[in-house]
Amino acid sequence: MTTFLVAFAVAFNYFIGIYYGIVNLIYTAFLATALGAILRHVERIKYSAAGDLRMSPETPPISVLIPAYNEQVTINAAVKSALSMNYPFFDVIIINDGSTDGTLKELIDVYDLMKIDLVYRDVIKTKAVRGFYYNPQVPNLMVIDKERGGKADALNSGVNMCQSPYFCSVDADSVLERDALLRLISPVLESTVPVIACGGVVRTLNGATIKDGVIERIGLPKSVLAMFQIVEYLRAFLFGRVGLDSVNAILILSGAFSLFNKASVIEVGGYSLNNVTEDMELIVRLHRHNAKNRRQYRIRFISDPICWTEVPETFKMLGRQRRRWHLGLLQSILQHKSLVFNPAYGRLGMFVMPYYLFVEVLSPVVEVIGYLVVVLSYLIGIISVEFFLLFLTLAIFYGTLLSTAGVFLEELTYRRYPEWSHMFKLLLFGFLENFGYRQLNSIWRVQAIFKYVVGQREWEYVRRRRES
């Protein structure tokens, strides 16, 4: 029995080493691809036709959809931010999803709204709509009041009501930069292949100063947890998703701010009510539908920082958020598991879905078990010092390289954090996050997998800082 356990431990250690080696090679390829893509994108921005789009009658209208459930504290900032967009033709639709606080009253009072009669076309089936609110003095704002159905159901109501060919889903705690819609529609209009969805970089709002829905000053937060998340977002957005975009392999666009072709979304049945991350599941379904029908299409990600959103500053709320994200990822992959290694779906079946399953979904399990097995194996003398150091390099120190690379990409390109002290502080946290914070995230993600296995798949509510 002892011989078998030793042999198993040795084999598992080799598996861990090979796994991390392959994953780090993939990340290196993403990093190299992202660096070139971001530098090219920054160069294009210098000669961007954004000014022409702002004045052109050919620029397509966009509806901004903001689902709101008990958002009395944050809803005004979100609405002001959305209404201040520098875009020629847009409207803002707030969907009050059965709020039990004063969200609806706040909107009615601030914008002097009155109840009106409109025909509601239930193209995508939703919970009952109770009324519509409007003020002719604010012609591009409408509020839908409906029974509680969840975020996906609220967004489906907004899709039913919007008259534009494109819509943007925006979280009620998000603040958008004024040119956000122009930046997001640009790759759609420039592409020779139909772009059915497009997302951009999301940054952390914590530490910024906001006035009338506009960011006046960008700064770094005092919260250590928020600092770790800034570095994490830089890494995830500035090379992870940019690298995946280069091969049309994007399965995750942030629900905080994403653009969709309305007809494409209606064609696949709208947002699913059976997933805690409805935005990701919709992206997978859009990929599947278009790949199955052999259509040429793109789902894009652009590296412009266009949306700012609050991040949790307590371990309890952060744990809830990360468990929900990973649970939604797992649900989305398993709901479409027939795509994995299915050659009929081309790149989607043979690369995209396997990557998300074996790297994104299962990596926290490999990481948590790997730490336990490798450290224990080293302590009892099963593995050598050289192998142990190789493991630490692949599992921890390479992550440090990727985090610092994300910070340097930010400094080379957009520099949203203007002071040199900001860069040094971000580099410090990029180093420190690999010693505790990243491992804690892996534990939360393993908990999400356990919750899925035992059937606990409910939405975990995350209380925002401004609600505390």
TrEMBL record:
> Is Transport included in the keywords of this UniProt record?
no
InterPro entries linked to this entry: Glyco_trans_2-like, Nucleotide-diphossugar_trans
Instruction: Print the keywords alphabetically.
Output: Glycosyltransferase, Membrane, Transferase, Transmembrane, Transmembrane helix
- Gene Ontology terms for molecular function: glycosyltransferase activity
Q: Where is the Glycosyltransferase 2-like domain?
A: 63-197
Top-level taxon of origin: Bacteria
What Pfam families does UniProt report for this protein, alphabetically? Chitin_synth_2 (PF03142), Glycos_transf_2 (PF00535)
* Family annotation (SUPFAM superfamilies): Nucleotide-diphospho-sugar transferases (SSF53448)
Kindly list the residue ranges recorded as spanning the membrane.
12-39, 355-381, 387-409
Say if the entry is tagged with keyword Lipoprotein: no
Q: Which family does it belong to?
A: Belongs to the glycosyltransferase 2 family.
Q: What is this protein called?
A: Glycosyltransferase family 2 protein
Source species of the chain: Candidatus Abyssobacteria bacterium SURF_17
